[in-house]
Each structure stands twice: as structure tokens, then as C-alpha cells.
């Protein structure tokens, strides 16, 4: 009997794969669009920002200076570092980047008091974009998303519709990324579709 | 609903936080030397003042860091937020001189 071969990459199923078509149907780019960004590389990075060895090692491995200002994001090419706490960051990169980034970090952080762990399977990412995106989020957030209080390059951990999320604003449009635990992804995507439903234009007839 | 100023994240909604009870309760240096009554007092007995109260809070849904707070239990007014391991601002809180010993 022939072996059944499972390809660990091609046969992956992202948490919202089964909702992909539904999300697309619920999206209206002129109002608000919802889609999953599956399988992004995510690395939890911890170390002291006061340790110059640590900061220099990360700079060498990732090519960016970790943000030390609360709630800020630093980008370098396709790699982004999200501030999660005074000694904690989430490094986000495209799918498949984890092994190279981790080995670069491990080599650079040799002998430095620090921690870098692949947590890509912990959360999936929902992209929310369009002029109404802030209004959709405001239905479940207690944070102020007004430009005077939040904007591109800002990140925060908060609760959206009772689900813990990392919320990052990626663009002026506005565009947001919601990093949510896999087990909450279906719930949160459903909540977002419901919250966005009122902004979809009625069909022309 | 309280608006709590996290020392790291700034003002956030109360629902993002958990209260950790009274602050500055010093753990006995030699727990084995305590009798049951003294250990029970350390574990369970807490102040419950009407007025200013020193509390520990954690920004559970945010940066997940602990901090201390002086809150008025009558008005809910938050009078001070200060780091773990430090003393409350002078003249604030219910512990008075006891805090000085605990912090050392």
C-alpha cells in the first residue's frame, strides 16, 4: 500500500481557511474589508532594553532597533518588531522566515540573557482595512482609535469583544492587524463580519 | 468603570486589569517558624479600610505587568500609581509607617 504523504507546508490549514470565502463575501473594500493573513512568522523575544549587548545582538540579527517606547512598532523590510511590554517584543515576518530568524537570533544572542521562541502557531492575524475599519473596531473596544490617540506604527494589547488581541495599526486608511489566538479566530472573525455588516452597501436593483 | 493609568501603557479600561489585593504584605522570612495562627494571619487577614487603600494591580490584558495603586475605596478615586517594590508617595495610603518596614 502506498504511503500517504502529508506535506507539512502545502497541507497546512490556517484557523480561518474555512471562512476565507465567507470573509471575502462580507468584505467591501470601499467600506471595510476583512481577511486572514495566515501563517505569519511570529517570534516572542524577551530581554532587557537596558542591556546594550542584547539590543546590539538583536540589531545584528534582525537589522532593526527594538522599540523601547510603549506601544510602538519598528519596521525593517519585511520584519516588524511590536512592543508588548518593557522587556517583551513580538517579531513578525513573512511565512517561512522563522527558522532563519531564529538561528540568526540564537547566534547573535549567544551568552546574552535573553529568550527567543517561535510562537507562530500561537496566533493568526486578521487584517481589517477600509474607511470604516475604526468604526467596526470601536463596537468592541474601549480604546480610543482617534488619530490623536492612535495611529500607524502603534500597537497595543487589549480586549476586543471579550477576546484578547494584539492590535496594530499598519496604515492611515485606516488599516489594522489583529493578532488573535487560533482558538478565538473563528469567533472574532464572525464578530467582525457581524459588526461590519451594516456598512455594506445594499445591492443595486 | 475605572480608567486606570498603567505605568507602561497609559490610561486603559478597568476590564483590562485584575486587582491583586492589598499591597505591601511582607512574606515572613521564616515561614516554618510560624504557628498556624500567625501563618493564617499572613495568608488571609487583610486590611479593609474605608478610604485610602494600597493595592496591587496587574494589566492582565495589556502589558501583563504588576504595579501598585492607592485607591480611595469610598470614591474610587485613584490617588497614585507607583512601581512594585517601591514605597507609596508620602502621605498616601492606609499603611503609614508600616510600609517603610515592608519595603525593606
Report what the structure shows:
The complex is a heterodimer of chains A (205) and B (104). Chain A has 205 residues and is α+β, with helices and mostly antiparallel strands. Helices cover 24% and strands 31% of the residues of chain A. Chain A is built from five helices and ten strands. Chain A is globular, with a radius of gyration of 18 Å. In chain B, β4 (52-58) and β5 form a beta hairpin. The radius of gyration of chain B is 15 Å and the shape is globular. Helix content of chain B is 14%, strand content 31%. Chain B is built from two helices and six strands. A four-stranded antiparallel β-sheet of chain B has the order 3-4-5-6, with no helix packed on it. In chain B, strands 1-2 form a two-stranded antiparallel ribbon. The interface between A and B is medium-sized, with 13 and 12 residues.
The name CATH uses for the topology of chain B is Folate-binding fold
> Secondary-structure element sequence of chain B?
EEEHEEEH
Number of E-state strands of chain A = 10
Overall 3D geometry of chain B? Answer: globular
Say which CATH homologous superfamily of the largest domain in chain A is assigned.
Probable tRNA modification gtpase trme, domain 1
Q: Number of DSSP helices of chain B?
A: 2
Give the SSE order of chain A as H and E letters.
Answer: HEEHEEEHEEHEEEH
CATH topology of the largest domain in chain A: Gyrase A, domain 2
Helix count from the secondary structure assignment of chain A: 5
> Judging by the overall fold, what is the CATH architecture of the largest domain in chain A?
2-Layer Sandwich
How many independent structural domains of chain B?
Answer: 1
**Secondary-structure content class of chain A:** alpha+beta
CATH class of chain B: Alpha Beta
What is the rounded Rg of chain A?
18 Å
Proportion of residues in extended strands of chain A: 25-35%
- Main sheet makeup of chain B: 4 strands, antiparallel
Please describe the biggest sheet of chain A, giving its number of strands, its sense, and whether it closes into a barrel. 5 strands, antiparallel
